[in-house]
Amino acid sequence: EAQVTQNPRYLITVTGKKLTVTCSQNMNHEYMSWYRQDPGLGLRQIYYSMNVEVTDKGDVPEGYKVSRKEKRNFPLILESPSPNQTSLYFCASRPPGKPTTGELFFGEGSRLTVL
Amino acid sequence: GENVEQHPSTLSVQEGDSAVIKCTYSDSASNYFPWYKQELGKRPQLIIDIRSNVGEKKDQRIAVTLNKTAKHFSLHITETQPEDSAVYFCAASSGGSNYKLTFGKGTLLTVNP
Fold first, then answer.
1. What pLDDT digit, counting tens, does each position of B55-83 carry?
2. What's the gap in Å between the CA of B66 and the closest CA on chain A?
3. Cα distance from B7 to chain A (closest Cα, Å)?
């Protein structure tokens, strides 16, 4: 089954404790992206990756890191989480094609709480 | 960069009525406009999209219209049903090599039986 898988789905952590949210897709998509969703703010892009070893900042990259060593995986790293990073995180991928061909396939989301 | 405004933020309708959600965008280079539906506790999923060379697109009870001159596009849902209750996001993209997709803040649609 074609899917984007995120882990963990739920996490409560404390300020400063490094954590990684994993994202894996089995559709051979080149493009992958991370979004955070906050009430009243919609979906905001954190980082994206056009392909292996190619990553770039989105609209809200502060406090986050990413890596793309394999096509299928795109982990999101919070080196020193802070309470303002409490949010619902979505990983998404897009099939190759023309730039304007668009459907994003989202993972199920990871709800992160930083105390 | 692109800015997408979405209205209303909440919308309540009676079952069987129509619902309209409107979005405006700022970047005249944007040429792709998808709509995503997010049911409670679920992931966003694409329901319909439109490209700039088309003024209207329909898929059963949902339709999207685009006015490039005014830089706005709208989602129309007819004969609403309780299962249409969800958060709807519009988005805009200028395509390009980085596929930058900017989302609106979302509309919570509630369809009352």
1. 899 999 999 999 999 999 999 999 999 99
2. 16
3. 12
